[in-house]
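Proteins fold. Shown next:

***
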Amino acid sequence: MKKMMIMAMMMAMTITANAMSYTAAKNEALFLSDKMAYELNLTDTQYDAVYEINLDYLMSVNGRNDAYGTWWNRRNTDLKYVLTAWQYEKYMDMSYFYRPLTWKNGSWTFNVYSHYSNKSHFYKARPKAYASYKGGNNKKSDRYYADKKVNKPTSTPTAKNGHSNNGKNMAGNSNSKKGNKTAKPNDNNRHIAQNTTKNSGSGHFGGRR
């Protein structure tokens, strides 16, 4: 009996260690969704839906085998309904969006930070869903987002300029010989993270740090 209790406690500790809290998941989902909104030129309603989908995925991952199993497949299905064909194709080409988690040294690593290392930089204001959505849409019908009205862009935009490792648009930092100024992210958006990612940690959760 004592041995069975110890085994049960060990299993519970493992699940707890690998699971993600709601607060951590929403902050990581916000950072990831913000970068997807920037790179994929999401509309506001797309941004809301993508945030919900990312949050559901992160809250559903309880162990290494969950990362690219059922919940990852559901995430891709939902995103395919929400994104246009060119947006989804671009999404799949970006591994830090398509495969956002990597298990390394006993903990999860968020791959988006390899491209956007400045955790306090955001391109957009928070989606409306950030304040109210608690998760669970991925437990509903697998056509939930197919039947949900989402405004999509009607044309393919020109390619984005590259960005530096601190998450800022490189075009905003380049100095032209003619002294031309390029657009930079809105200063108001740049400081949104002060109330957002302070508690999101170093981009890892579960297991040993």
Q: What stands out?
A: Residues 1-17, 164-202 have pLDDT under 50 and may be disordered. Residues 50 and 129 are 10 Å apart (CA to CA).
